[in-house]
Amino acid sequence: MERARRSLICAISLLLTFHNAFCFYLPGVAPEDFQKGDPLSVKVNKLTSTKTQLPYSFYSVPFCRPESIIDSRENLGEVLRGDRIENSPYSFKMREPEMCHVVCRLVLDDKTAKEFKEKIEDEYRVNMILDNLPLVVPVRRLEQEAPPAYQQGVYIGVKGQYSGSKDEKLFIHNHLTFTVKYHKDLQTDAARIVGFEVMPFSVKHEYDGKWAGNTRLTTCDPHAKRTVSNSNSPQEVEANQEIIFTYDVEFQESDVKWASRWDAYLLMADDQIHWFSIVNSLMIVLFLSGMVAMIMLRTLYRDISKYNELETQEEAQEETGWKLVHSDVFRPPSYSDLLCVYVGTGVQFFGMMLVTMMFAVLGFLSPSNRGGLMTAMLLLWVFMGLFAGYSASRLYKMFKGTEWKRIALRTAFLFPATVFVIFFILNALIWGQKSSGAVPFGTMFALVFLWFGISVPLVFVGSYVGFRKPTIEDPVKTNKIPRQIPEQAWYMNPIFSVLIGGILPFGAVFIELFFILTSIWLNQFYYLFGFLFIVFVILIVTCAEITIVLCYFQLCSEDYLWWWRSYLTSGSSALYLFLYATFYFFTKLDITKPVSGILYFGYMLIASYAFFVLTGTIGFYACFWFTRLIYSSVKID
C-alpha cells in the first residue's frame, strides 16, 4: 500500500509539472526577470542572404569586435543550419535608454571595403539575439490598421544613388536604433523582454578635431539631444573611408506577456490561404473517398456475391475481372528485396514525420528553440530504424526470403548512404565558399556515429524481431506457372497510370509546400504546425485512396503486377514536388551564383527522394491491405 501511495504521489507531481510546463509556449523553458539597470548582452548570429543561401559568421566581415570573442554552444540542429552564436560589443542596461553610443571607428582599406561591398551586393543581413529573441525590422503592411510584418535581421547596407547622380553606390548601415519591449510586473518591478526591434540608418558621422576615445560627434549627440532619424547624409563604402558605428536603444513598455511574445513574430497575415488549401485538399479526399466507397460497397459487393454464387464449371469459366488473377496476385514481384528495403525506409520516415508533427503541434518545437526541429527529426529518424528493420524483414519473409541479415544491411544503408553522398558533396562546395554553413568535422563524426552506432544496430534488431514473427500467409494460393497478362488499354499503361496517380497527392499539399519553401529559402518563420498536421493527414488519405482506385482498375484489367506499381503510383508525387521546386526557383528566388543553385537543387533532390519513399510506402500498404481484403472475401475452389 505504501509503495502504491508513493507511486500515486509521484504521478500527480509529474502531471502538475507537465501542466505548469504548458503555461509557456515551450515546455521546460523559464522566463528571465530583469531589474532596472541589469546588464543585457546582445549576441550575434550568422549573416544570411536569400540571394546566395550561404551563411557566414558575423566576424567573417570586419565589424566592431569585443575584447574577446566567445562562442555559444550550439546544438546539432543549429550547427547543421549554419548558426554561429557569439558575443558582441552591443551591451545595454535594462530600462536605461542610451543615445548615440559609439561602438567603434574603422578606417577601410581595399580588402575590408571589398568584403563589405560583396556582402551588401549579395543583400546579407545581420542577425542578433537578445534574451533568446531574434532581432527584427518592423515593416508596415499595405493595410493601415494591420499590425506590422517583421523581417528577420537587418541588412548590412543598401544600394543607392546621390541626388542628381546616376552612379550607383553602396552605403552601410552604421547606426542602429534598437527598441527593447518589456512587460513589467507591477508587484516586483521586475520586467521581462517581449520584443527586440531595430531601425537601421546610414550616416556619415562628423566630429570636430582629431578622433580620440571621448570625441563627441556632431551628427548625433546625447548632450545636445541630437538623434539620427534619417539617412539623408549616408555613409559610403569605399577604401580609405572612415566609418563610425553607433547605436541608440530605447525601452518600451508592452502589454504583451512573456508567454505570448512570439505571437507577433509568427503572425501570418494570409492564414485564409491555408484554410483554402485545406478545403481544396478535402475536396480531393471526398472525391476519392466517394470512388473508394463505390468500389468497396457496390462493385466489390456485387462481384464477390456473384463469384461466391458460381456453382457449375461452365459458369466458372465465364469469370472476368480481378477474380481471374487470384492465383497470381500474390506472386512475389521482381526485385522484391529492393521493394522490402524501400518499404522499410518509408516506415522509418512515416514514424519520424508522425512523431515530429505531434511534438510540434503540442508546442515542443517552438522556434525559440533554434535547431530543435532538425535535431528532433534526426534523432527520431535514427530511433525509427527499429521499425524500418521490422517492416522490411516481415515483408521479406512473406516473399520467401531467408537471408534477413542481408535485407537488414540494405535497409540500414541504401537510403542513408545515398543522402550522405549528396550531402557530403554539397558540404564540400560550402567549404569551398568558406561559409559557416559547412558542417565541421566533429559534427560530421557525430552524424556518422548516429548512423553506424545507433541506427544500424536498431535496424538489425528490428529485422531480427520481424523475421522471427510468423510468416504473413496469403489469402489465396499462387500457381507455379504465371498467367499471361492480356494486352492493356493505353490508359492502363504503367508509366501513364503511375504519373497520373501522383498528381492528386501533390495537389493536396502544394499550397502548404509554397509556405514551407518560403520559410526555408526566404528566411521566414513557419509555425503553422496545426495546418501542416491536417495537410499531412489529408496526404496520407489521398495517397492511400488513389492507389486503391488505380490498383482496382489494374486488377480488373487482369494485370496482377501491382506490387511495384502501388509504390510508384503515390510515390510519383515526388516528381511533381521536384518540378514545383524548379518552378519556385525560377519565379520566387533571386539566386544567381552557380554554387547556390547547386545547393538548392541538391537539397530539394534529397527532399523529393524522401517524399517519394514516404508517399510510396503509404500507397503500398494501402494497396496491400486492399488486395488481401478483397481476395480473402472470395471463395476459391
Automatic annotation (TrEMBL):
Subcellular location, record wording: Endosome membrane; Golgi apparatus membrane
Domain of life: Eukaryota
Signal peptide: 1-23
Keywords carried by this UniProt record: Endosome, Golgi apparatus, Membrane, Signal, Transmembrane, Transmembrane helix
UniProt keyword Transmembrane, yes or no: yes
Coiled-coil region(s): none
Membrane topology recorded in Swiss-Prot or TrEMBL: Multi-pass membrane protein
Cellular component, GO annotation: endosome membrane; Golgi membrane
Main location: membrane
A Pfam family the protein falls into: EMP70
Record carries keyword Membrane: yes
Matches recorded under SUPFAM superfamilies: MFS general substrate transporter
Membership in a protein family: Belongs to the major facilitator superfamily. Phosphate:H(+) symporter (TC 2.A.1.9) family.
Protein's recorded name: Transmembrane 9 superfamily member
